[in-house]
User: Which sequence fits this backbone?
C-alpha cells in the first residue's frame, strides 16, 4: 500500500481556560502532581473523597444548593428552566421545559414532557442504591422522567440503528461490541463529553468499590474499570465535546454543595494521563503501522507515516479543544501539511477506512 507522510507545523503554547481554573481551590490537586496512569487515578480518588459530604437522593431536589444551583439553563434559552441533557435542543427552542419551582417533579409519566426526575448515569441498581453514590450530584442530573426510563440501565454508546429517538435526538438501539450485545443509549453530541467525564469521575471516586459492580460498561477491575470498546467511546466523546461553561459552573456549584470536585472537568488532560496508554496501545480501532517522528519535536514539525490513505486528520489540544479538522486532505508527494497551530501538547487523530489512531505529540 501507499506510504503517506504527514507533516504538521505547529507554533505557540497551550493554556487552560481561565474560567476552568479560576474556581479550583489553591493546591487542591497538588498531591497528584507528577503521577500518571492508574496511580494518578488513585491519587485523584483520595483527593475527591476527602471533603465529600454524602447527601441523599431526595436532598438533590430540595436543597437550593443542589440541582436548583447546578442545573439551571443559563446557556441555551437562558430562561432559568431546568437544563436537561435528555431534552435540551442546543440549536433551537426546546420542545418543553421544566421548572424547579413548579410541580414538575414526579415518578409517574406516560410520555415525554410529563415530569422530570434524577438520572443516575451509573444506574443505582449497580450499587444497590447505597450511599454516597446514590445521591452523588457529580453523577446525577435532572432529566425527563420518560427519557430516563427509556435509557433504563443500558450502557452509553454510539447507536447506528435506533429503535427509539427522543425529541432532542437522544437514541436507544442495539449494539454489539466485544463483551456486550444488547441495547445502548446515545445522548446528543452536545452532551457526550459531559456524560463521559461524569463516568470517569465515578470510576475514580468509587475506585475501591467499582470492581464489584455489575454494569455492562465495567470490566470488573478497579484500574481500567471500563471494557475497552466503551472506554474508547467515552474517550472519543470527551475529546470531541470539550468542557463547557455549563460543566465548569456545575462543578463549582457541586463543590459548594457536596465538598468535592470532578477532576476531569478541572483538568481534562487527566483522562489521557490515566487511560491513555491503554487507549493508544491496545485499541483495536487503529490504523495499521502508524509512526510519529520526531516526538517530541524541536522543529515545529511532526511527521506521521502510515501504510494507508488518510481520510481525516484532527489536531486536538490536550484539554479537548478541536484545533483543526481536515477531511480527505490534499497532499503533494504524499505529504500533508497543517500550519499555524500553537506549540504545546496535542492529540493527533488520524482516520482511515472507519478506523483511527490517536497519538500524543509534543512541540517544544
Assistant:
Amino acid at each position: 500500500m501507499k506510504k503517506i507522510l504527514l507533516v504538521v507545523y505547529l507554533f505557540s503554547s497551550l493554556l487552560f481556560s481561565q474560567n476552568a481554573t479560576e474556581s479550583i481551590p489553591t493546591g487542591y490537586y497538588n498531591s497528584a502532581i507528577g503521577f500518571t496512569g492508574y496511580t494518578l487515578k488513585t491519587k485523584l480518588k483520595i483527593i475527591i473523597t476527602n471533603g465529600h459530604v454524602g447527601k441523599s437522593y431526595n436532598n438533590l431536589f430540595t436543597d437550593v444548593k443542589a440541582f436548583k444551583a447546578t442545573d439551571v439553563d443559563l446557556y441555551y434559552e437562558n430562561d432559568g428552566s431546568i437544563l436537561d441533557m435528555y431534552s435540551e435542543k442546543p440549536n433551537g427552542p426546546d420542545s418543553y421545559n421544566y421548572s424547579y419551582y413548579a410541580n414538575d417533579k414526579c415518578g409517574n409519566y406516560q410520555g415525554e414532557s410529563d415530569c422530570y426526575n434524577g438520572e443516575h448515569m451509573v444506574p443505582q441498581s449497580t450499587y444497590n442504591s447505597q450511599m454516597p453514590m446514590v445521591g452523588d450530584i457529580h453523577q446525577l442530573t435532572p432529566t425527563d422522567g420518560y427519557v430516563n426510563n427509556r435509557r433504563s440501565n443500558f450502557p452509553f454508546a454510539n447507536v447506528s440503528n435506533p429503535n427509539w429517538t427522543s425529541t432532542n435526538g437522544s437514541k436507544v438501539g442495539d449494539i454489539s461490541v466485544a463483551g456486550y450485545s444488547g441495547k445502548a443509549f446515545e445522548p446528543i453530541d452536545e452532551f457526550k463529553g459531559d456524560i463521559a467525564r461524569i463516568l470517569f469521575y465515578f470510576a475514580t471516586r468509587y475506585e475501591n468499590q467499582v470492581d464489584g459492580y455489575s454494569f455492562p460498561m465495567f470490566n470488573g477491575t478497579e484500574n481500567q474499570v471500563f471494557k475497552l470498546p466503551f472506554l474508547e467511546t467515552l474517550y472519543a466523546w470527551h475529546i470531541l465535546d470539550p468542557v463547557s461553561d455549563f460543566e465548569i459552573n456545575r462543578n463549582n456549584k457541586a463543590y459548594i454543595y457536596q465538598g468535592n470536585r470532578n477532576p476531569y472537568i478541572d483538568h481534562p488532560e487527566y483522562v489521557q494521563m490515566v487511560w491513555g496508554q491503554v487507549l493508544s496501545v491496545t485499541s483495536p480501532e487503529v490504523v495499521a503501522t502508524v509512526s510519529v517522528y520526531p516526538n517530541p519535536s524541536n522543529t515545529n514539525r511532526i511527521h506521521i507515516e502510515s501504510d494507508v490513505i488518510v481520510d481525516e486528520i484532527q489536531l486536538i489540544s490536550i484539554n479537548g479543544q478541536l484545533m483543526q479538522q481536515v477531511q480527505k486532505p490534499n497532499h503533494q508527494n504524499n505529504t500533508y501539511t497543517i500550519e499555524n497551530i500553537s506549540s504545546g501538547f496535542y492529540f493527533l487523530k488520524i482516520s482511515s477506512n472507519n478506523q483511527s489512531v490517536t497519538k500524543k505529540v509534543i512541540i517544544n
Residues 1-21, 280-288 have pLDDT under 50 and may be disordered. The first strand starts at residue 4 and ends at 10. Residues 264 and 270 are 6 Å apart (CA to CA).
